[in-house]
Specification:
Structural class: alpha/beta
Number of strands: 11
Shape: globular
Distance between the termini: 18 Å
Number of helices: 16
Bound molecules: glutamine
Strand content: 5-15%
Helix content: 25-40%
Largest sheet: 11 strands, mixed
Length: about 475
């Protein structure tokens, strides 16, 4: 038996039945990591010693017949913009190359309390800005399905590590699509929860009003399991919501007959690869076969999503990243004479090109004389986009769309054309602007490359999108190992 091919839930069950030990699970995954990392480069930092220590503790508990947490023994990767106490957290940037956090993020605390075993920190676009994991200071990550292609981004390391069986589950973050877009490119399940469902305490902010931590798994059950563990109110995050006890696994197998499904026509009239369009159209047909009621609807402000996103997000980026000044955190330039020079040289030397581009754009749209014209206008359009979704969810349970307009591309293909790169988030950014939830699930392959279906749900209605995804996965038999 190859342990690394088991689902997260199978790993936990076999551990409980004493068929495998936690140490065996960790060792098998580290062997796998050694085998493939040279090619894939999903990890920035590995934590073998600590993982083995935790494994031994879990094994002791199994031996003594003590209770085990929901994630017992499951190997997990954590995106490197999520704070881990005592373990280097880099955000994929030279700026934080040697940053060791003095506290723990809430999500990691919850994973540890549930007996999950964190194997290391995974690669990402610098400060989560990007759609290909090519902007990381620690080198590019490759797509495990086709090593000649990017895994998508910015959570490319999280997704590649899960797809390549280096871990069973991973945490990512999604500001405009960074979990769903790479999940689509690598053929796994990625969930962006409702804004406020998961604590952001310890997530290094890109754009606070859009960021959410989410999960990646090889199938819906695994992803739903971890979402249940990390979701829930946290007093340390003033934007987190108390939604009571949540068990997503309980309602997963409910029938979706009669489910009201909306298909927004605007999502199909925007520019996209026709092979993606066909794949998603087939998936929508399958929902019909399963007894869902499908209607075409209009989300009229869809075409303004990308422009709105880039104004709102860069504005927040410019203010969030002001804290990296060479004094409080991370890198400090060696050569400077004045305080201003210290700031400037530090930021010039330690931020990459895309990060600088966004700080400049955001500073511009927030500056006096431009804020009315750009930032404030974008906030108004954001409300219109949110209203579009609110209206749709008065009548419908879920919305279906492609996750991305294209298939995974090759490294270098879009790096010189930022606008082209931004377009791969065309269908994902409106979800973050509206604060609703969504996931991406594989819905077919074109010439060996995966196509992702995006399932969008109303605020805090994760149960709906998970139920729909689970039904789809079983019907299409595309879930898990494809
Ligand atoms: N690709 C998008 C961007 O570059 C989304 C990033 C994200 O979700 N963190 O902004």
């Amino acid at each position: 038996m190859d342990i690394t091919r088991l689902s997260a839930i199978e790993i936990r069950e076999r551990l409980k039945k004493k068929e495998i030990s936690s140490r065996e699970i960790v060792e098998a995954h580290f062997n796998r990591i050694e085998e493939v990392e040279d090619e894939i480069n999903a990890f920035i930092t590995l934590n073998k010693e600590e993982a083995l220590k935790i494994a031994d503790k879990i094994d002791n508990r199994v031996k003594n017949g003590q209770d085990l947490g929901l994630l017992a023994g499951i190997p997990i990767g954590v995106k490197d913009n999520i704070i881990t106490y005592g373990t280097r957290t880099t955000c994929g940037s030279k700026m934080l190359e040697n940053f060791i956090p003095p506290y723990e993020s809430t999500v990691v605390e919850r994973i540890k309390n549930a007996d999950g075993v964190i194997l290391g920190k995974v690669n990402m676009d610098e400060f989560a800005m990007g759609s290909s994991t090519e902007t990381s200071y620690f080198g590019i990550t490759k797509n495990p399905i086709d090593l000649e292609r990017v895994p998508g981004g910015s959570s490319g390391g999280s997704i590649a590590a899960v797809k390549a069986n280096e871990v069973a589950l991973a945490l990512g973050s999604d500001t405009g699509g960074s979990i769903r877009q790479p999940a689509s490119y690598c053929g796994v399940v990625g969930i962006k929860p409702t804004y406020g469902l998961v604590s952001r305490y310890g997530l290094i902010s890109v754009a606070n009003s859009l960021d959410q931590i989410g999960v990646v798994g090889r199938d819906v059950l695994d992803a739903a399991l971890m979402l249940g563990v990390i979701a829930g109110y946290d007093i340390k995050d003033s934007t987190s919501m108390d939604m009571g006890n949540i068990n997503y696994l309980e309602k997963l197998s409910e029938d979706i007959k009669g489910m009201k499904v909306a298909v927004p026509k605007e999502y199909f009239s925007l520019e996209m690869d026709s092979r993606v369009k066909d794949g998603v159209a087939k998936a929508i047909k399958l929902f019909e076969t399963m007894g869902a009621e499908i209607d075409e609807i209009s989300l009229p402000n869809t075409e303004y999503g990308l422009a709105t996103y880039y104004i709102v997000s860069t504005a927040e980026i410019s203010s969030n990243l002001a804290r990296f000044d060479g004094i409080r955190y991370g890198y400090r330039a060696k050569d400077y004479e004045t305080l201003d020079e210290l700031y400037m040289n530090t930021r010039r030397e330690a931020f990459g090109e895309e990060v600088k581009r966004r700080i400049m754009a955001g500073t511009y749209s927030l500056s006096r004389g431009h804020a009315e014209e750009y930032y404030k206008k974008a906030l108004k359009v954001r409300t219109l986009i949110k209203d579009d979704f609110d209206k749709a969810f008065e009548k419908y349970d879920i919305i279906l769309s492609p996750t991305t307009p294209d298939l995974p591309f090759k490294p270098g293909e879009k790096m010189d054309d930022p606008l082209d790169m931004y377009k791969s988030d065309l269908f994902t950014v409106p979800v973050n602007l509206a604060g609703v939830c969504a996931l991406s699930i594989p819905c077919g392959y074109v010439e060996g490359l995966p196509v992702g279906l995006q399932i969008i749900g109303d605020r805090f209605k994760e149960a709906n999108i998970l139920k729909a995804a689970y039904a789809f996965e079983r019907h299409s038999s595309l879930g898990g190992e494809i």
